[in-house]
């Protein structure tokens, strides 16, 4: 017969294992935005801001990147991070899109 304490321990251990397994999934980096994705194309997203066609996107100016856009929520120094324009995806910190707005 399994004691009450042992049963409780086993249930807590199983719960901890499940929590750790789901944390690994939650902490996995989201996939990068594909420049050919429909949304990315319509917003002129480029993973390297220096490759933006300024004739096609006259709003672009040198020095504008996702890292210094108000919508980018990646940490300073990260190579990529989340942006609400591309839910569930990661944008390059060196990237740019036509929704760019400087941080204030």
Automatic annotation (TrEMBL):
Coiled coil: none annotated. Keywords: 4Fe-4S, Electron transport, Iron, Iron-sulfur, Metal-binding, Signal, Transport. Residues 1-28 form the signal peptide. Gene3D superfamilies: High potential iron-sulphur protein. Residues 27-104 form the High potential iron-sulfur proteins family profile domain. Pfam families: HIPIP (PF01355). InterPro entries: High_potential_FeS_prot (IPR000170), HIPIP_sf (IPR036369), TAT_signal (IPR006311). GO terms for biological process: aerobic electron transport chain. One of its GO terms (molecular function) is 4 iron, 4 sulfur cluster binding. The keyword Metal-binding applies. SUPFAM superfamilies: HIPIP (high potential iron protein). Belongs to the high-potential iron-sulfur protein (HiPIP) family. Specific class of high-redox-potential 4Fe-4S ferredoxins. Functions in anaerobic electron transport in most purple and in some other photosynthetic bacteria and in at least one genus (Paracoccus) of halophilic, denitrifying bacteria. Homodimer. This is High-potential iron-sulfur protein.
